[in-house]
Amino acid sequence: MAPSLKTKPQDREAGLTTTRAPFIEEARQKGELYIHQPYELYSEDNHAAWRRLYTRMLPSWRRYANEQFLRGIESLCLDPYRVPRLEDVNRFLCPLTGFKAKAVSGYVPAFLFFDCLRNREFPTTITIRDKDRLDYLPEPDIFHDIAGHVPMHTDRAFADTLVRFGDCAHTAVALLADTRDEAQKIQRLTSVIRAMARFFWFTIEFGLMRSRDGLKVYGSGLLSSHGEIAHSIESPEVQRYPIQLEWVINQAFEIDHYQPLLFIVDSFEHLYDLVGQLEQWMRQGRLNNVAPGEPQIRESDLRSFLEQTVGTTERSGKPPGQA
Question: Which residues contact 14 (CB under 8 A, 6 or more apart)?
Fold first, then answer.
């Protein structure tokens, strides 16, 4: 459905700077999560921010990024000097793996986010950080999403892994639909979402991978961070371990500093199998009581899953818990 938002003179003056974009604020006030990218609103300062971010990351990508990411950057034909148009990104991306970038106005509740992955859509922020505060990122921006995440989506094995991860959310809904006690349902759901968030954090966002040239970065949080990408590989302060699912799902993390603990996968096929193991553990109830701690689960995340469990029960025509 076409968005109702229209650009205004004050929007053009403000640009699309993170936390200071009237266009985005209006979308949020109207409850519009999925939006279009009003490309004409990007200011010269916005394009300057993209140019500086891209230029300073290039040497680090060449040194630390995995080869699939480097191929992906080339495949997407990203302009180093201008904020990309999502329609151009998708023109190169879709034929490769079926994925596409989907513009959003802000935070996407957990089930909706995972469901997007299942449908080969990646929720993409369209604002960009201030050109004078390139290392300060109060929330994801288009550089993190397009230059950090999307090049990985050009790789078939990685893309299929994301789809399988999205499937896990539907598995969780199906399992929870049979839980009759509401308090128990909330407790289990909170734990399952926490486990999935931790897995996503330590793999898709901050993962390392073995290669013939040593450890390489595939996590998008690292691939979009000028300081942390080198720190993740070179620093003696970072603990790096072969990934074990029981460690990952029980390991809290904090988002406001360089990560002190990172996990290593052997390949994207290995990562795909780990997602399968995660889903199997979910079915066995092994995600129902993971260790407490970060991340804290938002009410909107819980609600996004609970609304689906209601829909599942209604479609089946059976009350919860009835075989």
Answer: 20, 21, 22, 41, 43
